[in-house]
């Protein structure tokens, strides 16, 4: 029987700490941290995520803005808004919700975000800092996974970690965070042959493949920490993970459920990134690691 990691509870504790820190920063700087979210188009899942981000930011006492733009917004108009956000004093961090409509080039958009306000950690500057092991803003979901591992008492140092998935926002930064924490890391993906032979080596298995039910007991070493980043919508409208929870749970040492595992952590870490962005920006130091 695995320890089931309660992401809701861990996220609640993180948000509690952020609310306290927000009150302190408000005293110190005379204003709260400011977070903006940009949503283009009317993807229903994105609309829910953005509403949740807005609510979470308000609950911890941030200044929170959401810019909702119609699907036919031109790339140029979007880039103009990002320039405004780059200059806005009251905004410490912002993100553009993905995916974007097809006529907009996501790479051009990400490159337009000022690295010091890049709370998604997606700009080349922040991604480079992670690669080099320098301080900076890291993508939220992989940071959330690291917090969950810590909460379960799993130290990656010296362990075999396997990350399934190689996206810029989860798989690749996840692998680098684990590497930085001393794990021996393998990245598996859709072209990996004999996936189960690779994943069975893992003491820590992080699955971010975006394929419902991809991972079963045949993929898992007994006692492993299994972290499921999958958020697949089933035909019944229910959220399904990449891991077949009921089959893997009896075998794992600890495991995250979907929903209620990694999902709640992403927003909590977004808030923490915004706090850090404010502190770095406000320290007005030329040595600031994020400017
Ligand atoms: N869409 C789904 N997850 C994310 C995320 O973490 N950041 C952004 N910008 N878009 C997303």
Question: Could you characterize what this model shows?
Answer:
The model has no long low-confidence stretch (mean pLDDT 96). α1 (7-29) packs parallel to α10, α2 packs across α10 and α6 packs across α10 (263-282). A six-stranded parallel sheet has the order 1-11-8-7-5-6. It has a three-stranded parallel sheet with strand order 3-2-4. The longest helix is centred in the first third of the chain and has 23 residues, at 7-29. Helix content is 41%, strand content 15%. It is of the alpha/beta class and 291 residues long. The chain folds into two domains: 28-114, Leucine Dehydrogenase, chain A, domain 1 (Rossmann fold), CATH 3.40.50; 140-263, NAD(P)-binding Rossmann-like Domain (Rossmann fold, 3-Layer(aba) Sandwich). Bound molecules: guanine (GUN).
If classified by CATH, what would the architecture of the largest domain be?
3-Layer(aba) Sandwich
Mean pLDDT across the residues is 96
- The number of domains is 2
Radius of gyration: 19 Å
Helical fraction: 40-55%
- Share of residues in strands: 15-25%
Give a list of the ligands.
guanine
- Topology as H/E string? EHEHEHEHHHEHEHEEEEHEH
Distance between the termini: 47 Å
- CATH H-level name of the largest domain... which superfamily? NAD(P)-binding Rossmann-like Domain
Shape: globular
Number of helices: 10
């Amino acid at each position: 029987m695995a320890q089931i990691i309660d992401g809701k509870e861990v996220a609640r504790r993180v948000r509690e700490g952020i609310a306290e820190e927000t009150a302190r920063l408000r005293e110190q700087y005379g204003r709260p941290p400011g977070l903006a979210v940009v949503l283009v188009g009317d993807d229903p899942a994105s609309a829910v995520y953005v509403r949740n981000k807005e609510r979470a930011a308000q609950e911890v006492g941030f200044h929170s803005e959401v810019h909702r733009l119609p699907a036919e917004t031109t790339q140029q108009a979007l880039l103009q808004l990002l320039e405004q956000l780059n200059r806005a004093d009251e905004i410490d961090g912002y993100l553009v919700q993905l995916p974007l409509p097809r006529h907009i080039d996501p790479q051009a958009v990400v490159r337009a975000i000022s690295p010091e306000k890049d709370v998604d950690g997606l700009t080349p500057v922040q991604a480079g800092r992670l690669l080099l092991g320098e301080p900076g803003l890291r993508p939220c979901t992989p940071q959330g996974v690291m917090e969950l591992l810590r909460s379960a008492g799993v130290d990656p140092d010296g362990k075999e970690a396997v990350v399934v998935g190689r996206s810029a926002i989860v798989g690749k930064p996840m692998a680098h965070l684990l590497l930085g924490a001393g794990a021996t890391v393998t990245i598996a993906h859709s072209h990996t042959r004999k996936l189960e032979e690779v994943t069975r080596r893992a003491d820590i298995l992080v699955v971010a493949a975006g394929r419902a039910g991809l991972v079963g007991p045949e993929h898992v070493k007994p006692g492993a920490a299994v972290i499921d980043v999958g958020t697949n919508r089933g035909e019944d409208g229910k959220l399904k993970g990449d891991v077949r929870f009921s089959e893997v749970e009896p075998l794992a040492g600890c495991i995250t459920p979907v929903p209620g595992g990694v999902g709640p952590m992403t927003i909590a870490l977004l808030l923490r990134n915004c706090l850090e962005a404010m502190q770095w920006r406000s320290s007005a130091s030329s040595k600031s690691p994020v400017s």
